[in-house]
Write a sequence for this structure.
């Protein structure tokens, strides 16, 4: 594929042939973004119109797909970490947490979000002119849509567990059913534990909501600083 | 080659050998070594996930970190190794 441009509207610029290939993953998308960003910084002026509707859909889908499923799985692990912090689930064989354990469990919970955020933060800053800006905008839209949907699903799911699934009456029904087969004394411990564990789902729901909101704020922070950087660069030019 | 040389009970008593493994399991899933292993796995996950961008290795080391943190001790206890 060939495009024409340049700062002074000069000769033709040969673009990578792989541009016609659909990026398979986020890594491909960010690599492509970095490639065009470097081209634009070196003076190639790619009009935004070259980023066609098909490309927009691909980037939107990629942003959504890469964020949604992994984010959902990580969010579903949150009750474990919250259970640890509430001293209901042992960590390293003990429920007596040291400050290191608390920090480590929080890091483990947010690890994916932080790592993925660093990765995306680098990506969303790679735009200069219209073409790469359109790429970043579509990628970000997909990511935001996925993050919002993930939060809504997890928030409703955890509340559903608390309000409908793990009610005292339902737990009691299950315990009374199991008491036909198991010794009631053996069931007393899990029954008590489940009752105490119930509120962890509410804490987890709010934790996922707040951590995702902060994550999105940092991502948008990266995007807006890049916007300001570009405005400054254009003023200098 | 005499393969019996590979049998650890020819070098130490059976009791000592069992005690060695019990000591290993008792220390790998709790206390300092559990924390050390968990942090090492998490650092490796970060290295492969962010620096090398190898998603498979990231997932593998992350699962290892989760295992040492949450499951190692209860599973070892259930298996009667502690």
């Amino acid at each position: 594929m060939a495009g024409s441009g340049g700062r002074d509207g000069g000769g033709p610029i040969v673009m990578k042939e792989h541009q016609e290939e659909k990026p398979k993953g986020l890594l491909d998308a960010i690599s492509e973004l970095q490639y065009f960003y470097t081209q634009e910084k070196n003076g190639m002026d790619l009009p935004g119109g070259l980023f066609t509707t098909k490309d927009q859909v691909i980037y939107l889908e990629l942003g959504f797909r890469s964020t949604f499923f992994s984010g959902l799985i990580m969010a579903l692990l949150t009750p474990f970490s919250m259970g640890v912090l509430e001293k209901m689930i042992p960590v390293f064989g003990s429920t007596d947490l040291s400050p290191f354990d608390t920090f480590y469990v929080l890091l483990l919970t947010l690890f994916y979000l932080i790592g993925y955020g660093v990765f995306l933060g680098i990506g969303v800053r790679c735009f200069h002119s219209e073409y790469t800006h359109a790429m970043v905008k579509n990628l970000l839209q997909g990511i935001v849509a996925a993050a919002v949907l993930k939060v809504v699903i997890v928030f409703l799911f955890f509340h559903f567990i608390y309000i409908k699934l793990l009610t005292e009456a339902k737990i009691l029904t299950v315990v009374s059913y199991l008491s036909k087969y198991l010794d009631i004394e053996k069931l007393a411990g899990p029954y008590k534990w489940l009752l105490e564990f119930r509120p962890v789902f509410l804490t987890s729901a709010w934790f996922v909501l707040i951590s995702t909101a902060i994550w999105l704020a940092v991502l948008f922070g990266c995007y807006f600083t890049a916007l300001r950087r570009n405005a400054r660069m254009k003023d200098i030019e | 080659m005499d393969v019996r040389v590979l049998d650890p009970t020819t070098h130490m008593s059976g009791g000592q050998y069992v005690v060695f493994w019990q000591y290993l399991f008792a220390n790998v899933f709790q206390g300092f070594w559990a924390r050390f292993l968990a942090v090492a796995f998490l650092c490796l996950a970060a290295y492969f996930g962010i620096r090398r961008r190898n998603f498979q290795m990231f997932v593998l080391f992350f699962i290892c970190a989760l295992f040492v943190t949450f499951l190692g001790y209860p599973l070892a206890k259930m298996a009667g190794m502690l």
